[in-house]
From TrEMBL:
PROSITE patterns: SIRTUIN
Name under which the protein is recorded: protein acetyllysine N-acetyltransferase
Enzyme Commission (EC) number: 2.3.1.286
MF terms in GO: histone deacetylase activity, NAD-dependent; NAD+ binding
Keywords: NAD, Transferase
Organism: Pseudoalteromonas peptidolytica F12-50-A1
Domain spans labelled Deacetylase sirtuin-type: 1-237
Class of enzymatic activity (EC top level): transferase
Keyword Iron in record: no
């Protein structure tokens, strides 16, 4: 059976990376002056890049050296679309996974959405934490008047006020959804667009769905199997 796995933050929790919407999650914590929903935007990157990059650095980059856990290892030879930007599927050896929201270890040149751009290794090791804001702006080549297209660097991450493009392999992700004979959601709260897209495709094509989560969200689909357990328990079962 051609199975597609769509994974969320719950899959990386065992690796010590906080989930997004739990009590320790990224979205429950703001900066000193802004909510996460205000911080994680292209508008903030453009208007206040120092604050944006500091927030991104503390919330995501500090976890860049964490390693994969047994769930990532189990998924390493499987058909995976992940919402996570931690890159742990790649560290586990999965060569074909889609990181549909980007990767913390990569950057692009700042560009207009939809343009074709290259991805580069992120220069996090060049950042001087003793003068974090100034160093981030320098490393990301952002002058005082703000990010410059084609020159400044931008984290390779899909922000709240951006949309899916083929930079994030959205066409390939949709192709995999349509060709799946079964879709298994693991560790996701179903609060992002990619899960809704997959659900819509499953409904239209009567694709069976399975949900792996200790407290699963009820889905309006006539062919759903709920596994009320963690991803770690599921792969051990």
């Amino acid at each position: 059976m051609k199975t597609l796995y769509i994974t969320g933050a719950g899959v990386s929790a065992q690796s010590g990376i906080p989930t997004f919407r739990g009590e320790d999650g990224f979205w429950t914590i703001g900066s000193a002056n802004y909510t996460p929903q205000e911080m994680a935007t292209r508008a903030m990157y453009k208007s206040n890049p120092g604050e944006f990059l500091k927030w991104y650095y503390h919330r995501f980059v500090s976890y860049r050296n964490h390693g994969p856990n047994p769930v990532h290892q189990w998924l390493s030879d499987k058909n995976v679309i992940t919402q996570n930007i931690d890159g742990l599927d790649g560290k586990a050896g999965n060569k074909q996974y889609i990181a549909v929201h980007g990767r913390v270890d990569q950057v692009t040149l700042f560009h207009t959405q939809g343009e074709s751009v290259e991805r580069y290794s992120a220069p996090w090791d060049d950042v001087d934490e003793s003068q974090l804001a100034e160093s981030l702006l320098a490393v990301f080549k952002i002058p005082k008047n703000g990010p410059q297209k084609g020159h400044s660097l931008k984290p390779y991450v899909l922000l709240f006020d951006e949309y899916y493009t083929d930079l994030y392999q959205i066409s390939e992700a949709q192709r995999r959804m349509y060709s799946a004979e079964r879709i298994i959601f693991m560790g996701t709260s179903f609060s992002v667009n990619i899960t809704q897209m997959a659900l819509d495709i499953a409904r239209q094509n009567n694709i069976p769905i399975e949900v792996v989560d200790p407290n699963p969200v009820h889905l309006f689909h006539n062919n759903v199997t709920y596994h009320r357990m963690t991803a770690t328990e599921y792969i051990s079962g």
